[in-house]
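# nightly structure sweep
# worker-07 picked up a monomer target from the shared queue
# config: single-sequence mode, recycle default, output format = structure tokens
# input follows
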Amino acid sequence: MITFDEFKKAEIKIGTILSAEKVPEADKLIKLMIDLGPKQMPVVAVVVPEGETEPVAQEVIPAPTQDIRQILSGIAEHYPDPSVLVGKQVPVLANLPTRTIRGYESQGMVLYAVGEGFLTTVGPDREIPPGTPVQ
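# output follows
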């Protein structure tokens, strides 16, 4: 059992699968590229008044950029043609530490429904913006 406070630490977001391909020389692994929506990257702007040589101010301006994650998933036996995954929206556990698997970085974990003899993606019942939090 985990506490509710422990569960709240999990950052689960909806991501859109941009590409999916089998990892060479790995029977079970598929490499997914997943769009987790915009992220804010700070950009420092230095202000130098006209005619001056020294800056008088610095300001941090948030600059949006897309959060594209590479995630390795051991689902190849359930998806012999990984291209069927492209375009699907899936929940991603986004705040896991990066792991290296077979020489590839994996930057999160896709959540699936798993039962006796099956594994399937789960997702929203309509298209929503990538990065939407799951709560």
